[in-house]
Design brief:
Chain lengths: 65, 376
């Protein structure tokens, strides 16, 4: 991001690594649900959607249809 | 091998995050607030391609994440595409800060192909006449053309408008221009008063009424455009309560390299007497970042005077800007006089009073500008 940097660790890094123009949101959610199989799948999904929305609001990413 | 003591000392300095590369001081524009120093460096002294490429690798190894190619006009370098490619392959996020002037569609395509991540395109106004007056060149139409080309490119875009008394009433038109483009970020940056801008400041400082109006307008628009366009607003610090954290703190986040390879803690550091600067031809960036006397001079808090020394805000604004302290207080180690707590704040207030008298507010005749010149 121009004049900004994200400090990423754990799940945030795993989400951003997959924002590559290839993964769909659904694929990102599935892959992270596998990695964090101890957590409730719904909670993982909610957290990912919330984080992606935050990045969009900061204009760090765009969604493509 | 350094001594273990030195290693312990230096490891406490966080890495620089960004490198500002002033590739050249040559520029097709002559903006009256140019941030380059009054003494411009000549084309003959500019670093060659291979030294810059070595510097990019060195920067990445020093922990730098982003590089800002600027100038002058960075596109005035014939090797700009190679420089972008080299910086990108070194692993840096590459930002090009440009007027868009020596650019056509083919060159833009080559820049994107070379890995350019982001372009910051400058505008001098929303209207051709005022924009051309401020830049001292016929430049506005070309910028609109560049905006059009950018729509079809996969490139993040910021529009940058430098704001001052003569264009602060055009914010609505500027925003409309941004909304019609592919930009996801817009900067309304009030002029900062150093160098060329300092010489022209009586004609550039907005009135308080203009400023209040613009702040109110942009707050409203930030809300409306949330999630679509991010609006950044830089206030003129002469009107602020507290100084800006200049460069994010001296020697804390940023390094700047001049066209001839001198490494500075900020754009204007060369005006500060008694500082000398290392050159990338002789030293690595890690050494300069950690050892250079110029970078140590105002790093941390030891150099601070009162009221900064015991101020609660000293870790927020780091005492403000050293160059502004020199320009306004005559001492680079003084508290930045724009701070409401500074002993010399009255100097700034006197200037603002003069700007805000009814006669000067009404004085809209064409000022006599000092235009930025070009280097040899």
């Amino acid at each position: 991001m121009p004049e900004r940097a994200l400090r990423l660790n754990g799940p945030s890094l795993e989400i951003v690594e997959r924002c590559d123009g290839q993964h769909t949101v659904e694929q990102i959610v599935r892959e992270l649900q596998k990695i964090y199989s101890q957590a409730a799948p719904q909670k993982v999904e909610q957290d990912i959607l919330g984080y992606l929305a935050l990045l969009e609001e900061r204009r760090a990413l765009d969604f493509e249809l | 091998m350094g001594s273990p003591f030195l290693l312990t000392m230096t490891s406490t300095i966080p890495n620089p995050l960004a490198l500002i590369a002033e590739l050249t001081h040559r520029c097709p524009l002559h903006c009256v607030y140019c941030s380059n120093p009054l003494e411009l460096q000549s084309r003959a002294g500019e670093l060659p391609t291979e030294i810059w490429c070595r510097v990019f690798k060195d920067a990445a190894e020093t922990g730098v994440l982003q590089i800002d190619f600027t100038g002058g006009e960075p596109l005035a370098r014939p090797d700009i595409v190679d420089l972008v490619r080299a910086a990108r392959s070194a692993g840096l996020y590459v930002n090009l800060i440009t007027s868009g002037l020596p650019l056509d569609e083919t060159r833009l395509a080559a820049l994107v192909e070379a890995g350019l991540d982001h372009m910051q395109l400058s505008f001098q106004g929303a209207r051709e006449e005022t924009a051309n007056e401020i830049s001292g060149a016929k430049s506005h139409t070309q910028k609109l053309r560049v905006l059009d080309w950018l729509r079809h490119r996969r490139l993040a875009v910021t529009l940058n408008f430098v704001i001052h008394r003569r264009n602060i009433d055009q914010l609505e038109e500027m925003l409309a221009l941004a909304e019609s483009s592919s930009a996801t970020r817009i900067e309304f940056a009030n002029v900062q008063y150093y160098g060329w801008a300092f010489a022209n400041r009586e004609n550039l400082l907005p009135t308080r009424e203009q400023l209040d109006h613009s702040v109110e307008f942009l707050k409203r628009e930030q809300q409306r455009l949330q999630g679509k366009i991010r609006i950044e607003f830089v206030v003129p610090d002469y009107y602020a309560m507290y100084p800006k954290p200049c460069m994010g703190g001296w020697g804390r986040k940023l390094m700047l390299i001049t066209p001839t390879g001198d490494v500075l803690p900020c754009h204007a550091a060369q005006v500060i007497p008694g500082l000398s600067f290392e050159n990338v031809k002789d030293h690595g960036l890690r050494d300069i970042w950690e050892q250079s006397a110029a970078f140590q001079r105002f790093r941390g808090e030891d150099w601070m005077q009162q009221p900064c020394k015991t101020c609660d805000r000293r870790e927020q604004d780091f005492g403000g800007c050293r160059c502004q302290a020199l320009l306004l207080a005559g001492n680079a180690a003084a508290t930045d006089p724009v701070c409401s707590l500074a002993p010399l704040r009255s100097k700034v207030d006197a200037l603002l009073a003069a700007i805000n008298t009814p006669t000067s507010v009404q004085n809209l005749t064409q000022p006599s500008w000092l235009y930025r010149s070009n280097p040899a």
